[in-house]
Amino acid sequence: MRVAKGITSRAHPLWLAYILHRLSGLGLALFLPFHFWVLALATTDPERLNGFLSLTEAGAVKLAEFGLVFLLSVHMFGGLRLMALEFLPWTPAQKTLAAGATAGSFLVATLFLIQAI
Amino acid sequence: MTSKTLKVTVERGADAQCQFEVPAYESQTVLDVVSWIQQNADPTLSYRFACRVGMCGSCAMMVNGVPRWTCRTHISKVLDGDAVTIGPLRNLPVIKDLAVDMDPFFDKWVAAEAVHHGALTRDDPIAPVDERSEERVTANAGIECINCSVCYAACDTVAGNPDYLGPAALQRAWTLLNDAKDEGRVAILDAVSGRGGCHNCHSMGSCTTYCPNELDPMSAIAGLKRETAKSFFKRRRS
Amino acid sequence: MITLRLYVAQRITALLMAPLVFGHLAVMIYAIQGGLSAEEILGRTQGSFAWFAFYGIFVVAVAIHGAIGLRTVAHEWGGLKGPLLEVFMWAVGLGLFALGARAVWAVTFA
User: Fold this and answer.
1) Pair B175, B219: CB distance under 8 Å
2) CB distance C3–B161 less than 8 Å?
3) What is the pLDDT of residues A4-20, one digit of tens each?
4) Which of B13, B87, B146, B228 has the CB geometry, 3.0–4.6 Å to B57, for a possible disulfide?
5) Smallest Cβ distance to C76: which of B161, B197, B232?
6) C71 to chain B: nearest residue by CA?
7) pTM, whole model, 2 decimals?
8) Residue C1 burial by CB count (10 A; 0-12/13-18/19+): exposed, middle or buried?
9) Phi–psi pair at B85, nearest 5 degrees
10) Nearest CA in chain C to A116
């Protein structure tokens, strides 16, 4: 409890973005070996691969997949944010506008994608 | 207000905590509270201060887990109910009670080449500086640092990576890099590119959030990252 | 514990992977429509040089990126340093590359 308070007392939005980026990266790095191993079953044990793939229909696994996709996209957007912060010496107002424009475009494109498939 | 007492916890050493009841009054600063304890309750309490007006940078402490300049922080702004916890600055070795050893902090200023690299002598005419040039404006943004080490104490990267030069030293390196009077460009870029250099920064921005003078070391470090990356590709090509 | 060289490698692989991640997310959203099967995945990827290049580059980049990232975390949160830290980084990088290369090969040309 004291440790938790020691950390959260200094938390602020950018710090939360940092911790989210670190934890999502860590999660992805831990998941990748498993991901690769399952795919390699295509040659060594196709039956077992299908077994794993049919598991993806289960609710709990779907939730875990949601988590993984979230980790991937949050790490990518967090990384793009970080690189924009480092390499584009813009004013805060310009950054807000750029972030807004990107978020807006992404929303439109996602809506299109959902309609298309 | 005058009848109120504050419950003050002072962190002294690894797990030693002392509780004090301190009378509250108007416009009381955290430093006032610490001074009251030293003068009225426990004369052995060690702490450090000098100017009391936010210029000297010697009175910074952890207040409820947040690094602050105690002489310019009103206690009413940081109270948790009527309680407050005051501890020595984070990320620096404690000498005694609330006084920390600032040597590692200043050693890193030197290690970052955050020192003046002059080329002129007293016999040369004074070089004119264009106050409105882009470089001067960039340098000016960071020169009001008072070396209080609040950013250094706020930084989690320093906490996990003791070799990291930290926000204050790197910000000074950045102001010198943009200073027309400084000739140390190559030395600075090399110094901030080592194992403890600017590339260890994760842009968590605690330095900028807690800097009492509202400076922006995080953006200064981003500037160093850009300049070092540029020179990295230039050196490869030539 | 990150030098300029590692920093540049980290950022270059990140920039390289940004469009690849977008592609990977799109493929995932598309591929899970109507369930997943080995036949469906292999039908898409087997013998395809384009998929081999796409995921081959992805694996190389992620091995470098992940190794440098885990190096930082191992140092800051795990206290790992010195030669042990270097060994750890290379082990992660080579391990991720070996596993990833094997997987890409399995779904394309094996």
Assistant:
1) no
2) no
3) 666 778 889 899 999 99
4) B146
5) B161
6) B200
7) 0.91
8) buried
9) -115, 125
10) C30
Chain A CB contacts of C21 under 8 Å are 72-73, 76
Q: Mapping DSSP to helix (H, G, I), strand (E, B) and coil, where does residue B99 land?
A: strand
Packing angle of the helix pair C38-45, A46-55 (nearest 10 deg): 110
What is the torsion angle, in degrees rounded to the nearest 10, for the CA atoms of residue A7, residue A9, residue A12 and residue A17? 10
Closest CA to C37 of A117, A52, A38: A52
Q: How far is CA C31 from the centre of its chain?
A: 20
Residue type, A44: T
Which 3-state string (H, E, C) describes chain A? CHHHHHHHCCCCHHHHHHHHHHHHHHHHHHHHHHHHHHHHHHHHCHHHHHHHHHHCCCHHHHHHHHHHHHHHHHHHHHHHHHHHHHHCCCCHHHHHHHHHHHHHHHHHHHHHHHHHC
In the structure encoding, which two tokens stand for residue B48, read together?
């450090």
Q: Say if CB B16 and CB B43 are below 8 A apart.
A: no
Report the alpha-carbon distance of residue B31 to residue A42 in Å, rounded. 68
B132: burial class by Cβ within 10 Å (0-12, 13-18, 19+)? exposed
Closest approach of chain C CAs to the CA of A93, in angstroms? 24
Report yes or no: B172 and B116 within 8 Å, Cβ to Cβ: no
Residues of C in contact with B201 (CB under 8 A): none
Measure in Å the smallest separation between the Cα of C102 and chain B Cα atoms: 33
Give chains near B: 3+ CB pairs under 8 A. A, C
User: Scanning every residue of chain A, which has its alpha carbon at the shortest distance from the alpha carbon of C23?
Assistant: A73
Residue A80 has which token pair? 């793009």
The residues pairing with B7 across neighbouring beta strands, listed in sequence order, are B21, B83
B213 at A interface, C-beta within 8 A: no
pLDDT in tens, chain C (110 residues): 789 999 999 999 999 999 999 999 888 888 887 778 888 888 889 999 999 999 999 999 999 999 999 999 999 999 999 999 999 999 999 999 999 999 999 999 87
3-class secondary structure, C19: helix
Per residue in A34-53, pLDDT tens? 999 999 988 888 888 888 88
